[in-house]
Amino acid sequence: MARKVRVRFAPSPTGGLHLGGVRTVLFNYLFARHHGGDFILRIEDTDNTRFVEGAEDYIMETLRWCGMEPDESPVAGGPYAPYRQSERKANYRQYADQLIANGYAYYAFDTPEELEEMRTQFKTAENPSPQYDHQLRMKMRNSLSMGEDEVQRLISEGVPYVVRIKMPENETVSFTDMIRGEVSFSTGTVDDKVLLKKDGMPTYHLAVVVDDYLMKITHAFRGEEWLPSAPVHLLLWKYLGWTDDMPQWAHLPLILKPDGNGKLSKRDGDRLGFPVFAMNWTDPRTNEFTQGFRERGFLPEAFVNMLAMLGWNDGSGKEIFTMEELIASFDMSRVHKGGAKFDFEKAKWFNHEWIKAAPAARLLPDVKQILTKAGISVTDDSYLATIIDLVKERCTLLPDFAEQAGFFFAAPTSPDMEPVKAKWNLDKNLFFTDLQGVLADLQDWSAASIETAFKEMATARAIKVGELQLPLRLMLVGGKFGPAVFEIAALIGKASTIARIKKGLENLA
Question: Catalytic residues, which ones?
C-alpha cells in the first residue's frame, strides 16, 4: 500500500462493550497487523450527557483480555495525542469556521422548543417526520434565513447556536466500500446534521472526519448502521479539501439475533440466557448488571476465534484459528455482506475446542481460581495440572472444572447413591465392605492394579463388574460423571478412596 496502514477503533465511553463492538476492534486489529500497520484506540467522548464513569477503563481492559493492545491510545500515548476527543476540543472550531466561511455550513440559533414546533408544524402525510433539511432550513432561525447584521448581533450577545452542514439539495455522492463495492446516496434525503454543538464540542460527524485526517487514518471500519451517515462524512472530506487523504471505508455486517430477525441486543442475551458483552458490566447510573463472556467461562482465544468467524472466513472451511493464524489469513474481501446470526451453542463449541487443546499450564491459573471460589484449596500445582489434563475434554466452560475436578481435592459431602439403591443387595454391600480391606493391603497403588484387584474380587463373588463400577463412581465422585473410575481412585489416594467407600456404604445403609 502507498501509505502505512493506520486503523482506529473509536468507541464512546457509554457502557459495556457489545459483541459487535469487539468484532469491529478485531477486524481493525487483524487488518493492521496483517499489513504491518498501526492500531489506534481513540475515545470519542464529546457527548458529556452520555459519558459513563468507568466505561473507558472497561474498554481498555477488554482489549487487554482479548490480546489486542493498541499501538496508540489514551494510556499508551503516541505521536497524535491526545487520544480523547474531549481533550482535542480546540482542534475542531477552526474547521467549523472554515466550512462556514466557504459556504458549506451555517449557524443555527433555534431553541429546543422551536425545533419541536418545526416537527409538529410541518408534519404531513407525505412527510410524517420533518427534518432540518434543504426544504425547511429557510423557515428556521439560522444564518441562511437571517441577515448578516442580525447573525452577528446574536453571536455578540452570546445567544447559543450550533453549526450545521449545508447539505446539497440534489447531488449524488458515492464511494467504494471494501465489502459492499460501489455505494451511492442522494443528498436530498439527508438532513443538515449538527457539526458543532452549543457547548463548542463537535458531534461525531465533524470529529470523526477531523481526527481521522489529523491522525492519518488510512482505513475506517465500522458497523453498517453508520452507512446513512456516510454522505455527510464524504462531503466533509470534500469540503475541507482532504479528498485525497480520505480513508478507505468498510461497513461491517450486523451480528444478528439467533433467529436472524434484527440486530443482537443485550435484551436478547437477557431473554435467552447468554452474554452479549465481553466482560461483566455494572452500569453505575442504574446499578444494572450484565454478564460477560469472560466471567461466563470463555477463554479469550476462543472468544476472539468465535468473533472472527461471525461474518468472515478464509475460504478453506477451517474454523479453529490462533490470533497469529487470523492475522496471516485475514482479508477484508472475505468479510460477508450479510449479517451473521449469533449462535451461543456454537460459541460454546469454540470454547470447548480451545479448552481441550490448551496445555494444563495455560488453564491452571483460571482453574485454580475457580476451585478456590468453590471453596476448594489447591496446594500442589503439579497435581492440579495432572487433573486438568485428565478432565479438560469434559469441560465446555471454565466453571465446569469445579464439578469435573473438585472431587479430586475434596470428597463429596453427601454422595448421591440413589441411582443404585433399587438394585442394591447384601452381596454388593458385602463386596464393598470387604473391598476396603483388599485395597488397604494393595502394595501397588496404580489404576491398573486397583482395577485388577476389583475385577478379580467381583469374579470370585460372581457379581457383574458393570453393576459394581457405578456404585464405586458414586462413592468416589458423588455423581455419574468423571474420567475412568480406577484413574480417579489412583489419583485421590488409598486413604481417601477407602474413606469414600465407607461413606457411600453409610449413605446406602
Answer: 266
